[in-house]
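Task 17 of the worksheet. Students: predict the tertiary structure of the chain below and write it out as C-alpha coordinates. Keep your answer in the requested format; marks are given for formatting as well as content.
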Amino acid sequence: MKNSMKGKTIVITGASSGVGKAIALTLAKEGVNLVLAARREALLQELASECESLGSQTIPVRADVT
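Model answer:
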Protein backbone atom coordinates (compact mmCIF):
# COMPACT_ATOMS: atom_id res chain seq x y z
CA MET A 1 0.00 0.00 0.00
CA LYS A 2 1.42 3.37 -1.04
CA ASN A 3 1.05 6.29 1.37
CA SER A 4 -0.48 9.26 -0.41
CA MET A 5 0.93 12.71 0.25
CA LYS A 6 -1.97 14.39 -1.52
CA GLY A 7 -3.37 17.20 0.60
CA LYS A 8 -0.36 17.33 2.93
CA THR A 9 1.60 20.59 3.29
CA ILE A 10 5.38 20.72 2.89
CA VAL A 11 7.77 23.66 3.28
CA ILE A 12 10.72 23.73 0.87
CA THR A 13 13.63 26.12 1.41
CA GLY A 14 15.93 26.91 -1.50
CA ALA A 15 12.99 26.24 -3.80
CA SER A 16 13.87 28.59 -6.67
CA SER A 17 16.45 26.32 -8.31
CA GLY A 18 18.31 23.03 -8.24
CA VAL A 19 17.14 20.21 -6.02
CA GLY A 20 14.60 22.40 -4.23
CA LYS A 21 12.88 23.24 -7.50
CA ALA A 22 12.92 19.60 -8.65
CA ILE A 23 11.37 18.47 -5.35
CA ALA A 24 8.71 21.18 -5.57
CA LEU A 25 7.68 20.16 -9.08
CA THR A 26 7.60 16.47 -8.19
CA LEU A 27 5.46 17.08 -5.11
CA ALA A 28 3.15 19.45 -7.00
CA LYS A 29 2.38 16.63 -9.44
CA GLU A 30 1.34 14.51 -6.43
CA GLY A 31 -1.13 17.16 -5.22
CA VAL A 32 0.92 18.27 -2.22
CA ASN A 33 0.32 21.79 -0.87
CA LEU A 34 3.57 23.74 -0.90
CA VAL A 35 5.15 26.64 0.93
CA LEU A 36 8.10 27.65 -1.25
CA ALA A 37 10.86 29.73 0.33
CA ALA A 38 13.78 31.29 -1.53
CA ARG A 39 15.75 34.53 -1.89
CA ARG A 40 15.13 35.13 -5.59
CA GLU A 41 11.58 36.43 -5.78
CA ALA A 42 11.16 36.38 -9.58
CA LEU A 43 12.20 32.72 -9.83
CA LEU A 44 10.09 31.90 -6.79
CA GLN A 45 6.96 33.43 -8.33
CA GLU A 46 7.63 31.59 -11.60
CA LEU A 47 7.93 28.27 -9.77
CA ALA A 48 4.80 28.92 -7.71
CA SER A 49 2.81 29.48 -10.90
CA GLU A 50 4.18 26.30 -12.43
CA CYS A 51 3.34 24.27 -9.31
CA GLU A 52 -0.18 25.69 -9.23
CA SER A 53 -0.69 24.71 -12.86
CA LEU A 54 0.18 21.15 -11.81
CA GLY A 55 -2.59 21.18 -9.19
CA SER A 56 -0.77 22.27 -6.04
CA GLN A 57 -1.94 25.00 -3.68
CA THR A 58 1.22 27.06 -3.33
CA ILE A 59 2.39 29.91 -1.10
CA PRO A 60 5.65 31.58 -2.21
CA VAL A 61 7.67 33.28 0.54
CA ARG A 62 10.75 35.40 -0.08
CA ALA A 63 13.17 34.37 2.64
CA ASP A 64 16.86 34.13 3.46
CA VAL A 65 17.53 31.42 6.04
CA THR A 66 21.22 32.19 6.56
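Marker's comment: The CA atoms of residues 59 and 66 lie 20 Å apart. The chain has two helices and three strands.
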